[in-house]
Amino acid sequence: xxxxxxxxxxxxxxxxxxxxxxxxxxxxxxxxxxxxxxxxxxxxxxxxxxxxxxxxxxxxxxxxxxxxxxxxxxxxxxxxxxxxxxxxxxxxxxxxxxxxxxxxxxxxxxxxxxxxxxxxxxxxxxxxxxxxxxxxxxxxxxxxxxxxxxxxxxxxxxxxxxxxxxxxxxxxxxxxxxxxxxxxxxxxxxxxxxxxxxxxxxxxxxxxxxxxxxxxxxxxxxxxxxxxxxxxxxxxxxxxxxxxxxxxxxxxxxxxxxx
Amino acid sequence: xxxxxxxxxxxxxxxxxxxxxxxxxxxxxxxxxxxxxxxxxxxxxxxxxxxxxxxxxxxxxxxxxxxxxxxxxxxxxxxxxxxxxxxxxxxxxxxxxxxxxxxxxxxxxxxxxxxxxxxxxxxxxxxxxxxxxxxxxxxxxxxxxxxxxxxxxxxxxxxxxxxxxxxxxxxxxxxxxxxxxxxxxxxxxxxxxxxxxxxxxxxxxxxxxxxxxxxxxxxxxxxxxxxxxxxxxxxxxxxxxxxxxxxxxxxxxxxxxxxxxxxxxxxxxxxxxxxxxxxxxxxxxxxxxxxxxxxxxxxxxxxxxxxxxxxxxxxxxxxxxxxxxxxxxxxxxxxxxxxxxxxxxxxxxxxxxxxxxxxxxxxxxxxxxxxxxxxxxxxxxxxxxxxxxxxxxxx
Lengths: 259, 395
Fold this sequence. Notes:
The complex is a heterodimer. Chain A is α/β, with parallel strands linked by helices. Chain A has helices spanning 3-6, 25-37, 57-68, 73-83, 97-103, 105-114, 134-140, 155-161, 186-196, 210-219, 227-236, 241-256, and strands at residues 13-19, 43-46, 91-94, 119-121, 143-148, 167-170, 201-204, 222-225. Chain A has a single domain (13-141, 173-180, 200-256), classed as TIM Barrel, CATH 3.20.20.70. The model of chain A has no long low-confidence stretch (mean pLDDT 96). Chain B is of the alpha/beta class. Helix content of chain B is 44%, strand content 18%. Chain B has 16 helices and 14 strands. The longest helix of chain B has 17 residues, at 17-33. Classes of the chains: A alpha/beta, B alpha/beta. Chain A binds chain B through residues 49-51, 53-54, 56-57, 60, 64, 67, 72-74, 97-103, 123-129, 131-132, 147-153, 155, 159, 170, 173-175, and chain B through 1-2, 4, 12-22, 160-161, 166-167, 170, 173-174, 177-181, 274-280, 282, 285, 287, 289-293. Chain A: Belongs to the TrpA family.
């Protein structure tokens, strides 16, 4: 079992997301350690991109702030190296295909492995194009995470069959961001995936409240929370750590409370 | 790697999962209708009776005499309904969307020409229409914003990123992911994920087909060179496509060099770009060493794009086409030149091709001929050119 998959072995998984470098890499580093002790089972680290087409305004702004501060993939790799001295929590990078491709797909995946990074989530690399990274991920032992969406229908089985680590279930149409209600039938998506694979399913997009996190944890194996956290970071800036940690502890409890 | 929709190593289908079934559905519908006689007949009728095709191939006699070299012909796409080549693609795509049962179309626009064409055809076919346009572009092309609204479209100014064409594409893609079942994204250039580069090229290839017939009728021979401006590259691809196999015909694409290719203010993708994957396609992009897309610049809102269509990238790799940079200054000078020399005010985009044609024609023999794609008319640019020249007019 890969470390990514093992994140789901003890029960439902709480998966927070952070845009690396917002407000600074030092704060991101501190947040990762604090989130791990607050109960995060896996942490997604966003590598900021100039044109994040799958993101809503909250993460777009976070990316813009991080890039304006001069954050680069190399800086983030170094940050992960420091983090790895303090915590073994499973870590996934979330970024777009261009920063990886430009860095050199193989070189990028190799660096991930060297930093003990466990998984890669690339929202603009669909099933049909995963050959761009899959061979390198297999070679270096990094899980390439597959995504399914409410529009995926029959594709769910095809994608789930080859999925590794966990299956990222996009809860809603549209981009990332806090939603008052999650309307897509995520339960149906998860059961289609379960027909062909025992891969853990984590739901993301729109989850902000402990109640939503609990609901999603009932329907799947984990809940991913991004924009809600980045909103807190945007509000408190360099003083965000205690606020994010308190929020994460509450969310983790809501998720872990589901059996 | 997936070989579908590839031009050499370029192209592909890099989209969020939410859009994959929609793009596959589009691909299947296009495969079905592109050879459907009824569809082809309907589109041909619209091109003739609504857009005004075929467009003229005009012999620019004064310009030819002035330059003292090759005969210069202008393909008058500016005379199409809505004033540019954009209508060719939009009529095809909206008709296709209608056959697919879609009731709403969305589009990005740079200069506003594609947005106007989409709003126009949406009105004609009774479809709902929303257009995304960079905030900076809504300011430099305010007249086109009002024109789209007049046609019944809703225009969304996009203030994320650099507030120009690439950001308009981002926002249209985001909108498509949030409402995909009843909506078709009318992509305006030979870019984006497969099948868009192929669909748009096919619908624009009417330009080159007509040029071939028209020039054979006038000169009894093929042209020695074809010249067109390139942002994403749809008017150029439409002109070039039928001539790719005719090796004696030089294909020349003109990129926006803004304030110069060696400055940080240009949009010259072939001159300055590197391989990347963005907006659904592998191609060349202006970007930094970490793959962050560069803020690009051109006086022309329609060429102000950091990438180029994948088929152009391939024509560049194989050496079949040449891509040359043209600066703002050269384009403005050509804008004024054609206005005075031939009484034709070109779009500032097309003026990039005119600027290049002036140099190319002058170096050729009198027995040779070139065709310049006059992809759009310049009315929309008059106020901006006046500003460029320091003339304060109220627009």
